[in-house]
From TrEMBL:
Gene3D superfamilies in the cross-refs: 1.10.10.2830, 3.90.1530.30
Protein name per Swiss-Prot or TrEMBL: Chromosome partitioning protein ParB
Organism per entry: Chryseobacterium flavum
Domain ParB-like N-terminal intervals: 40-129
Gene Ontology molecular function: any one: DNA binding
Lineage, top ranks: Bacteria, Pseudomonadati, Bacteroidota, Flavobacteriia, Flavobacteriales
An annotated GO cellular component: chromosome
Amino acid sequence: MKDKKRAMGRGLGAILSAESKATINSATDEGADKFVGNIVEVALEDIYPNPTQPRTYFDEKALNELAQSIKNLGVIQPITLRKDGEKFEIISGERRYRATKIAGLTTIPAYIRLVNDQELLEMALVENIQREDLDAIEIALTYHRLLEEIGLTQENLSQRIGKDRSTITNSIRLLRLNPDIQNAIRSGEISAGHGRAIISLENEEDQQVLFDLIIKEKLNVRQAEQAAAALKNPKSPAAKKAKAELSNNYKRAQKTIADILDVKVEIKASGNGKKGKIVLDFKNEEELEYILSHIK
């Protein structure tokens, strides 16, 4: 156990020499074995971000919180760098790199990889997909870049990232949505599930109609799918079901009216949800008079 601790200590404490910075650039160079599998400390001034990094936005508050953690505990997970002459390009860990600078440190623990540019981009993109805070459009764009720029097939990509091909296909289809709808997914105004319901419609006008309906009536994904079915085939069973399914706004209105009048209330909305009627139940004339007295 002590030996392991000492070995890790040597790795974390090993600052790269000027010679290794200048002469070791590929796996065949003398001394390259010192890099492989080891953690070394690299000066922050020698590191630069990957210009093709898919992630371009870093939340300032989250960065400051990470910087405070690094001040207290240090960098727990080393970043990964590519050797580029005397400098080092970030493959993964740019957020940790930025937070370390904010924390006032001058070096950061890192794994050094000796790879070519295509492998660099592929590693950065695959690592990007594994992030939990990416929105659905960012993920779709990353899949697209791996297929187009790296030349992976969907089968290769599926094996690399452990996702079903259908998941990848459905994700990429979101990129066919118009920019306004894509932005709504990115901002969290609607979900990727809503987006898939919208893209199931071939007609762009129908897509816009459904998007507007989702926003206006605050439809959940199931209601959006039913509305999509109604737009595809107004006479289908799904369309009738969609017509019967009330939006959350209508449900709230129905309950509010029922509470005020103390009677059973039913709101019947049209298929597109833009119009409808309110049905009030009363048992006798006295109840009718009671309702009228509250409406006046």
